[in-house]
Amino acid sequence: MKNNWSNLESKKYINKYKKLGHSTDMALRVYTTRLLGRNSKLVLHGGGNTSVKTSVKDIDGKNYDVLCVKGSGWDMAEIEPAGLPAVKLNPLLSLKNKKYLSDEDMVTFQTKNLIDIKSPNPSVETFLHAFLPFKFVDHTHSDAIMNVTNRPNGKDFCKKIFGSKVSIVPYVMPGFGLAQKINEVYSKNPNIDCLILLNHGIFTFDDDAKKSYDLMIKYVSLAERALKKIKRIEIKQIKKFNNSFKPHEISPILRGLLSETKDLKFIVNYRSNKILDYFINGKEVKRYTGLGTATPDHVIRVKPFPLVITPKPNSTIEDFKKLAEKNIKDYRKKYIKYFDINKKKVKDKKTMLDTSPRVILVQNVGLFSVGDSLDAAKIAGDLTETNARVISSVEETSKYKFIPEKDLFDVEYWSLEQAKIKKAKKILQGNVVVVTGSFGAIGSATYKLFKSHGAEVILLDYNLQKVKEMKLKLKELCLHCDVTNKDSVKKAFEIISKQYGGIDILISNAGTAIGGSIAEVDDKILRQSFEDNFFSHQNCASEAIKIMKKQNIEGCLLFNISKQSVNPGKNFGPYGLPKSALLNLCKQYAVDYGALGIRSNGINADRIRSGLLNNNMIKSRAKAREISTEEYMKGNLLLKEVKAEDVANAFFHLAISKKTTGAVLTVDGGNIAASLR
User: Fold this and answer.
1) Is the Cβ–Cβ distance between 649 and 446 less than 8 Å?
2) Proportion of the chain in helix, strand, coil states, percent, rounded to 5
3) Beta bridge partners of 56
4) Which residues, 6+ apart, have CB-to-CB distance to 153 below 8 Å?
5) Exposure string for 252-288, b = 16+ CB within 10 A, e = fewer
6) Rounded CA separation 281/271 (Å)
């Protein structure tokens, strides 16, 4: 493993954080923590932790010896000093000889001794870091170390690889008990500079930040070199065969089957590569994936075992649907049995988590990772790739062996681990929302509002340059899409299905404002307006319906229609006519698909400053009505200008109104001539 320490970089960190009021100790702690955290073969998604023992001044003006240890919710790759909360060290050390400390009391004690009570909760391994008498302590879940330890002869293999300065520690669940065990091990051999925790990870430590980091790289490299020397036999693979379906076609089926209720929705993210394909297509995949994860803390993200689906050669999409339905039912039964067996072995009462798998391995297709958000689904995918690397490598040289199922259960249902991923769910959590015409005023306001309520929002727009710009600014999926082109729409929705598993809400917002006297307008212009303002909505809605039907978890279509659909404006027929057709399209979808729980509603907005109604258009419309631009924008019963945010709020209201369909909500400040009733 490459050692990425740089004297130049370390000095930059020291100078940077010194200006911000931090010590050299803290600057170097941040630097080496990031070096470890940015290596995916050492740390992934919040795994691992680091600490530094130093001194700080509290509000009483006194200096205190403290342990600054990684806090809950912080990722080592991007750690800042705020992510290393300072805990008073002496109170921690005073419990060295305490025989027992419950998890709740441990957390309370650590929190009580924080210098800043607003800091994040210190790591569950805080006491372990405190009991090791070194300034810098580093902990990772190295792939190579897991590869060495997760096998029948793991302990003996470690003894062959590592020297006398390394102690091998049998698996103990993280927490105060593990800290006690480490204290006992270190007391017997105080000359060590490394601990290998079987089936868990590696600790290195020193009073110098660089030396502690160097030790991590040294011992991981020793493990890697030892593994390379072992003779390998490739995992036997199933026969390759073709299917008549593609990932984007089955992803919505899986997504729908995962939802135990209409309100519990998941994101399903597809990926495939050589490492995963090799792992997934192994003949014994059900055996070796059923033995547990590469390291215990993965279980809270991916559950103790994945779902494996093996389609028959040349099976149809209907064949796959039937198979997947049966396999997911069987998985739920298996998970319930796992829970029922292991809950009896623990003292505390446990409440079963949902029974949906977080990892679905479809042989000869790829990995579908699952989460209540895209981030969670991707994390499950990343962890599965790590598991694939480690388990495949072990299987080539031995047989994979992990901790007993009961120990894995303890971690999965450990309140301290669950706290890492439990957050209050927002109303649209797990919902996939697609917005067309997304970079205009209404589209942007709608995106921000739906995102704030927990939705995964995909942004479609015709402006290629704007799409490129927004891709650099937003982490959301931004796609170039010509909604008047069926192939372009189809391609965009295929990408969405692969990355998110489907769609719940379509906000069909794109359109163009075209004016002209109706008797004199050129047919080409009128036809183009129908393409932009009617057929574009039909193209998107029809594709969305195909996906929603596969999911079978209801859905919602929302159309930006316009008051022009019922109250034509002078010299604005080319725009109003297709909008009238769109109004009826909205109602037709409500009629045709209501029985499936798919709702269809629209917004009739008027005079919203946007890409359509720009300053030139406002002047033109005001002139047509022989009024000022201000009078035009406030020309409603409330005498108030209606804004893009008001339209976004209306879309949101219709999205969450579960028993409303075929409705059109007017957002125009009051215009009796444009009212529907």
Assistant:
1) no
2) 45, 15, 40
3) 64
4) 398
5) bbbbbbbbeeeeebbbbbbbeeeebbbbbbbeebeeb
6) 14
> What is the DSSP code string of 533-562?
IIIHHHHHHHHHHHHHHHHTS-EEEEEE--
Q: What is the predicted pLDDT for the residue at 421? A: 62
pLDDT at res. 580: 96
**Residue 114 DSSP one-character state:** B
* pTM beyond cutoff 0.85: yes
Spatial neighbors of 497 by CB under 8 A, at least 6 apart, are: 248, 249, 251, 252, 503, 547
Per mean pLDDT, which range of 172-176, 345-349, 431-435 is the poorest? 345-349
**Are 267 and 372 contacting, i.e. CB atoms less than 8 angstroms apart?**
yes
Q: Is the CB of residue 68 less than 8 Å from the CB of residue 116? A: no
What is the mean pLDDT of the segment spanning 503-522? 94
- How do residues 611-652 score in pLDDT, each as one tens digit? 667 788 788 878 878 888 888 888 888 999 889 999 999 999
Tally Cβ neighbours within 10 Å of residue 424.
Answer: 6
The answer on pLDDT for 239 being more than 70 is: yes
Sheet architecture: strand order including 598-605: 478-480, 456-461, 432-436, 505-508, 555-560, 598-605, 664-667
Residue 210: φ, ψ to 5°: -65, -45
Which residue blocks in 458-508 are alpha helix, DSSP H? 464-473, 486-500
Three-state SS at 138: strand
Dist CA 359 CA 367 (whole Å): 7
Read off the amino acid at residue 362.
V
